[in-house]
């Protein structure tokens, strides 16, 4: 019991942690490990060295070590490192037989382990057991023939031993497995070390067949060149070109071949090689080829050769473009322009034939517009460059047979064909071509071209017939009528020309009737038939009341020398003004009046100018409401409108508005005058001055002015109504200051509202502005008279 109690007392008590909060300084496991490493707390001291003094201790040591190695192998016999360590330990003890036994046992476990074979063979070679080593390498390359390291070690061992035949035999066995390129190069270098060039050549022959790559053929050729066999080297390059053919051509082969020939001073052969390669290699794969070819021409060629290089490069570029898209006619044009400058006619024809063979797939004119120029350029090339008229005629005929004339045609090619026949002095053929064109597909351009052709030949009867056909085809074409009439005028047949014009203006439908009428009128003026011209103007005004026709008519009357020309011109302007009162286009009416005013300024008197000036309108800015497409409100728009005095007389609201503005202006002026009088007569009492002003300035309203204005303004002089009302109107009766200011503000608001309803701002015409200036001059002189006569006017 006592011992139990003593034992219980020895057990330490578990410390209780009262404060379980984290410490201020936290220590991580990484810090603990780092600190232990720094202090080297876990480093164990090395075991003491054991010295073996007798054979018994050595045997005991060997036994312990072998037992340990065997135990490790038993535990995991697949770990080859244990076998290797065991064998190396036995080897260190010079126990080669035991080490060989261990390696053999290991090979039974894993005979495909490369390291194991290498260590085994190295052990035999270190022990100078050559036959054993040769046996091991032979077994290794037999079991694992694809491991190049075995072959390299084997051949190296044989060569170091001086066994050249054995080394060559090993290489031959290796080459039967067709290894990679480096193995072949090792074999070739081995033969070259012993000056066996023929054997090296035979190895190269086998090598380029096993690894048929361009670089290997180049290496073979350079090998021959290096050893002085120039003919053999050239033959190798030629065999390489034949071997790869046109399907697998490579620019590096041709560059190397060309450089070889360049070193042999065979410049013509170099040029032929480059051209041959450029003809067969696509452009995107021949960048280096072009580069070296250009460098070669710069070094050894002339200017022509350099240009050929550039042309060849561009030709390849165009070939790629047309191959990618045969219907890219712009690329064909560029290509043809290139070959026309440098190539022979047969090559150019071949390219033209290839180009025109790409017919547009859709029979729509927009797709044929570029294509047809290929035929035109082809024909022009044959005619101008090759000078072969018969072939040119065949090209034109083939192009015309190809075009679907029932759907569309090209007048240009018909005209070019006819002009070509004329250049060949085949007039009958040219007329036949144009007749066929008009019969198959009549067009304006064809008919015009045929007529110009006959005009150049001075065949006027044929021109008349063609114009008749032309007008039957398009009777609404005013230009044709005019040209026909001009032809008859040139030929001196005036009556026939006039009859043509009469027929033309009698057509129910014309594309440009104003041009036709103008030409007819100019024709009559040239013939000095002023009566006919006047009748033409009257007939034209029956059809249209356009302002330019009236102005032209007036200028025509003015241009005729005669005593009554001014009166006739003025009469035309008056008739035009009356006729255009109902015209909705006020700008045209204003244009007429301005032209009339210019006429009066140059040829009229002051009274006539004043009369026309009274007819000029007033320019007014107005607002109108805009509506969107969906019917919603789109805001307001400002625009200018013209108010003519003749129209204003029929609109009393406008007259009333003008008189109200005049009354307002007079009211402001009277107030200013009263303020000046108050300043001058400051000694007088305000009551007296107020009474005097009330007596002298009775209040007048726009309604009274409107009642009196018709009586005082004469008929036909509406523009002077504002001035007469200004003279008759008197200042309003003076109010007390507060009442007067209130009324003034209300009147201003009312006037502003009226202005917004009718117009935002107005600028008076020349007659109104002149009358207002005269009023302003008279106002200061008549201030006292107006104040005195105010009471009389009110009564």
Automatic annotation (TrEMBL):
Q: Does the keyword Phosphoprotein apply?
A: yes
Q: Which domain of life is it from?
A: Eukaryota
Low complexity bias: start-end ranges:
760-770
Comp. bias (Acidic residues): 669-684
From the Swiss-Prot or TrEMBL record, state where the protein is found.
Nucleus speckle
- Alphabetic keyword roster: mRNA processing, mRNA splicing, Nucleus, Phosphoprotein, Repeat, Spliceosome
Q: What SUPFAM superfamilies has UniProt attached to this entry?
A: TPR-like
InterPro entries recorded for this chain?
HAT (IPR003107), HAT_Syf1_CNRKL1_C (IPR055430), Syf1-like (IPR045075), TPR-like_helical_dom_sf (IPR011990)
> What are the GO BP annotations of this UniProt entry?
spliceosomal complex assembly
Note whether Phosphoprotein occurs among the keywords: yes
Give the family this protein belongs to, as stated in its UniProt record. Answer: Belongs to the crooked-neck family.
The protein's name is Crooked neck-like protein 1
Q: Which organism is it from?
A: Eleginops maclovinus
């Amino acid at each position: 019991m006592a011992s139990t109690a003593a034992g219980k007392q020895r057990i330490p008590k578990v410390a209780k942690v009262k404060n379980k909060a984290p410490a201020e300084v936290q220590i991580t496991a990484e810090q603990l490990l780092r600190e232990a490493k720094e202090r080297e707390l876990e480093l164990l001291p090395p075991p003491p060295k054991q010295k073996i003094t007798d054979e018994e201790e050595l045997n005991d040591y060997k036994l312990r070590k072998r037992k340990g190695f065997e135990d490790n192998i038993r535990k995991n016999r697949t770990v080859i490192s244990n076998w290797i360590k065991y064998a190396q330990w036995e080897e260190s003890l010079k126990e080669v037989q035991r080490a060989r036994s261990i390696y053999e046992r290991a090979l039974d476990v894993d005979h495909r382990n490369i390291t194991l074979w290498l260590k085994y063979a190295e052990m035999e070679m270190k022990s100078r057991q050559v036959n054993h080593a040769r046996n091991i390498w032979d077994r290794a390359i037999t079991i694992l023939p694809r491991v190049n390291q075995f072959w390299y070690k084997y051949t190296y061992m044989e060569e170091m031993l001086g066994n050249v035949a054995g080394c060559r035999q090993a290489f031959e066995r290796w080459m039967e497995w067709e290894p990679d390129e480096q193995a072949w190069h090792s074999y070739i270098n081995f033969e070259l070390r012993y000056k066996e060039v023929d054997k090296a050549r035979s190895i190269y022959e086998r090598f380029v067949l096993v690894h048929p790559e361009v670089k290997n053929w180049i290496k073979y050729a350079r090998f021959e060149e290096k050893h002085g066999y120039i003919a053999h080297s050239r033959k190798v390059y030629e065999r390489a070109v034949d071997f790869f053919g046109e399907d697998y051509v490579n620019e590096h082969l041709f560059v190397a071949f060309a450089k070889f020939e360049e070193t042999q001073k065979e410049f013509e052969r170099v040029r032929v090689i480059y051209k041959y390669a450029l003809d067969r290699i696509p452009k995107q794969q021949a960048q280096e080829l072009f580069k070296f070819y250009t460098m070669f021409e710069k070094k050894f060629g002339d200017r022509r050769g350099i240009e050929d290089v550039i042309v060849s490069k561009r030709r390849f570029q165009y070939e790629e473009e047309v191959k990618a898209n045969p219907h890219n006619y712009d690329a064909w044009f560029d290509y043809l322009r290139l070959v026309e400058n440098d190539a022979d006619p047969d090559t150019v024809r071949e390219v033209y034939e290839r180009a025109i063979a790409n017919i547009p797939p859709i029979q729509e004119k927009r797709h044929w517009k570029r294509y047809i120029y290929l035929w035109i350029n082809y024909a022009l090339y044959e005619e101008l460059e090759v000078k072969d008229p018969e072939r040119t005629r065949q090209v034109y005929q083939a192009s015309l047979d190809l075009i679907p004339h029932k759907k569309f045609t090209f007048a240009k090619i018909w005209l070019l064909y006819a002009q070509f026949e004329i250049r060949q002095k085949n007039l009958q053929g040219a007329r036949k071509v144009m007749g066929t064109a008009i019969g198959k597909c009549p067009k304006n351009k064809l008919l015009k071209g045929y007529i110009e052709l006959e005009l150049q030949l001075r065949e006027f009867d044929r021109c008349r017939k063609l114009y008749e056909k032309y007008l039957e085809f398009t009777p609404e074409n005013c230009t044709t009528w005019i040209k026909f009439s001009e032809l008859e005028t040139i030929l001196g047949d005036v009556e026939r020309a006039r009859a043509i014009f009469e027929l033309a203006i009698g057509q129910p439908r014309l594309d440009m009737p104003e041009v036709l009428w103008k030409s007819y009128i100019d024709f009559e003026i040239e013939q000095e038939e002023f009566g006919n011209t006047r009748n033409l103007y009257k007939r034209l005004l029956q059809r249209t009341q356009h302002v330019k026709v009236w102005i032209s008519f007036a200028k025509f009357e003015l241009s005729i020398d005669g005593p009554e020309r001014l009166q006739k011109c003025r009469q035309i302007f008056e008739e035009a003004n009356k006729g255009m009162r109902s015209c909705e286009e006020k700008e045209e009416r204003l244009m007429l009046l301005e032209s009339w005013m210019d006429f009066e300024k140059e040829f009229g008197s002051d009274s006539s100018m004043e009369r026309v000036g009274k007819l000029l309108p007033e320019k007014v800015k107005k607002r109108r409401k805009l509506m969107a497409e969906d019917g919603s409100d789109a805001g307001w728009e400002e625009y200018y409108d013209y108010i003519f005095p003749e129209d204003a007389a029929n609109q009393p609201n406008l007259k009333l508005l003008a008189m109200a503005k005049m009354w307002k202006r007079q009211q402001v002026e009277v107030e200013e005058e009263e303020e000046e009088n108050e300043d001058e007569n400051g000694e007088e009492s305000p009551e007296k001055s107020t009474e005097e002003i009330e007596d002298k300035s009775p209040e007048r309203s726009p309604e009274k002015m409107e009642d009196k204005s018709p009586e005082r303004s004469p008929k036909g002089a509406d523009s002077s109504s504002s001035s007469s009302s200004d003279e008759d109107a008197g200042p309003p009766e003076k109010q007390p200051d507060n009442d007067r200011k209130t009324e003034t503000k209300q009147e201003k608001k009312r006037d502003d509202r009226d202005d917004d309803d009718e117009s935002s701002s107005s600028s008076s015409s020349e007659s109104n502005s002149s009358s207002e200036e005269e009023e302003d001059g008279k106002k200061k002189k008549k201030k006292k008279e107006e104040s005195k006569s105010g009471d009389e006017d009110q009564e």
